[in-house]
Design brief:
With 122 residues, this protein is mainly alpha-helical. It has five helices and no strands.
């Protein structure tokens, strides 16, 4: 049986939410580069870094909830889509380079997700 609409939406929400943690880590790295003082003080006062830790804590709880409803083998495919979104978000937000090979790789991941999402259990 393929995933229900609710489970598909839960997995999709997780996949879209996960990359925001990476964006927060990048913002933290930028803030750290601009800060002065000892490294420990810079880390402890780096709001984007603390936000990234908090975000990933929340995402771990969300992931736990998803796994109470969805087999890991199916849910994990959605998380790969979230990972593939990171370069796209970096391109949009930070103007980082994005090339056609990355775009093709992202499309392959999406096709793989569609295959996994429609798979029937053995």
């Amino acid at each position: 049986m393929s995933l229900s609409l609710k489970d598909t939406l839960l997995c999709s929400a997780f996949a879209v939410a996960l990359p925001f943690g990476q964006i927060l880590f990048k913002l933290a790295a930028i803030a750290n580069a601009k800060a002065d003082g000892p490294i420990l003080l810079r880390l402890l006062t780096n709001l984007p870094l603390m936000s990234a830790f908090a975000w990933y804590g929340l995402m771990a709880l969300f992931w736990f909830y998803v796994l109470t409803r969805v087999p890991l083998s199916s849910a994990f495919a959605f998380s790969m889509v979230g990972s593939a979104l990171v370069p796209v978000m970096a391109w949009v937000i930070f103007k980082e380079p994005l090339n056609w090979q990355m775009a093709i790789g992202f499309m392959i991941i999406l096709v793989g997700l569609m295959i996994v999402a429609r798979a029937q259990p053995a």
